[in-house]
Design goal:
This is Chaperonin. There is one protein chain. The chain contains three helices and no strands. It is mostly helical. It has a domain at 39-85. The radius of gyration is 28 Å and the shape is elongated.
């Protein structure tokens, strides 16, 4: 054997099993890059956490504090016209 090839190369190059029902999956396209940033908010008044807890208790929201703040932030930016071009 002068030309050493792996058995996998030989199979691939000779189309062995080309009519088989199962095919080798091709590599998927890379996932899109996430567009988020981790931020730490320094001091949040305790009364805001208490007010959020009251809303949860009254079933006015099912969001946790972090998601509630993100939604409020997005709504405020929208109201102030930050997304208009």
């Amino acid at each position: 054997m002068a030309d050493k090839k792996s058995i996998f190369d030989a199979v691939r190059n000779n189309n062995v099993g080309g009519d088989a029902k199962l095919k080798v999956n091709q590599a998927a396209a890379p996932a899109p890059e996430r567009r988020t940033r981790a931020k730490t908010i320094k001091a949040i008044n305790e009364e805001l956490f208490e007010a959020h807890a009251r809303l949860v208790k009254k079933n006015k929201t099912n969001l946790d504090v972090s998601n509630y703040m993100k939604e409020a932030f997005r709504e405020k930016l929208e109201r102030d016209g930050a997304f208009e071009e």
